[in-house]
Design a protein that fits this description.
The structure is a single chain. With 260 residues, this protein is mostly helical. The protein has one domain. The protein contains nine helices and no strands. Helix 3 crosses helix 5. 39% of the residues are buried.
């Protein structure tokens, strides 16, 4: 089987910033296609799932880590997840709460099958193509779930867009605190953070795109997507050098003459 060990990025602070940026971009780009361009949720889902499959096959075929390809797959799971969630919750009429419960069950099933097959959910244990496929399927479902959760918090919970983002942000902060101050399983914390960053991105996307009277910043889907794409592209360029971690970047910013 093809080794996938070197095909995944280092999990640093930069990884999480890019993950949030990519998932937020997925929210705004998915809404741009389905709502702004009036393609519709069903057609948008078919288009974006096709894009996901193309990027996924390309990712599975390469033998080393290619940052732009990796983040293209992340972005495609996010955009597809946005329209898939909207199709379930709105077109099929399941609603955000029921749609979220269904997606929780599906994601739990993926994790159970992955654990039974590979023995671990750790991304550092991904050494086969089968494990890599499970990894990407889990990401697709986590991003779809995150959209439904984000919409539930923003629309049905009474918290609003900013309140939903604040709640998810607080849960992420607790996850970070657990990482640094407890012995909680790193695998559990990784996937908790991975799932939570999607609804955080979803609610953040709503904050960026929605009008002022609905609690947003009124950048619109086009403006927000362009801003997020520029930020993500720049971060990939900056961090794509081998061995360049977030700690190195921070040290370089504080002591530019000490690091070559």
């Amino acid at each position: 089987m093809t080794s996938a060990m070197s095909k995944l990025p280092q999990v640093t602070l930069a990884f999480w910033v890019m993950k949030i940026c990519a998932t937020t971009l997925g929210e705004t780009a998915g809404d741009l296609l389905s709502m702004t361009l009036k393609v519709g949720y069903a057609a948008s889902s078919l288009i974006l799932i096709s894009v996901f499959l193309v990027t996924l096959i390309s990712q599975l075929r390469v033998r080393s880590f290619h940052p732009f390809l990796y983040w293209a797959v992340i972005l495609s799971t996010s955009t597809a997840g946005t329209t898939m969630s909207d199709f379930m919750d709105r077109t099929l009429g399941l609603g955000y709460a029921k749609g979220s419960l269904i997606l929780v069950a599906l994601l739990s099933g993926v994790f159970a099958l992955w654990r039974a097959s590979a023995g671990s959910l750790s991304v550092q244990e991904i050494r086969t193509r089968k494990a890599e496929v499970f990894y990407w399927v889990a990401i697709l479902f986590s991003n779809t779930l995150g959209t439904a959760l984000g919409d539930f918090l923003a629309d049905d919970s009474g918290l609003g867009f900013a309140g939903g983002a604040l709640l998810i942000g607080s849960l992420l902060a607790l996850t970070v605190a657990a990482y640094y101050f407890t012995r909680t399983s790193r695998v559990l914390l990784f996937w908790t953070a991975f799932v939570l960053t999607r609804p955080f991105g979803a609610t953040l996307g709503d904050v960026l795109t929605k009008p002022y009277d609905k609690g947003g910043l009124d950048f619109g889907t086009v403006g927000s997507s362009l801003i997020l794409a520029a930020v993500l592209f720049t971060m990939i360029l900056v961090t794509r050098k081998p061995g360049l971690t977030t700690d190195t970047l921070f040290k370089r910013a504080r002591h530019p003459h000490e690091i070559p």
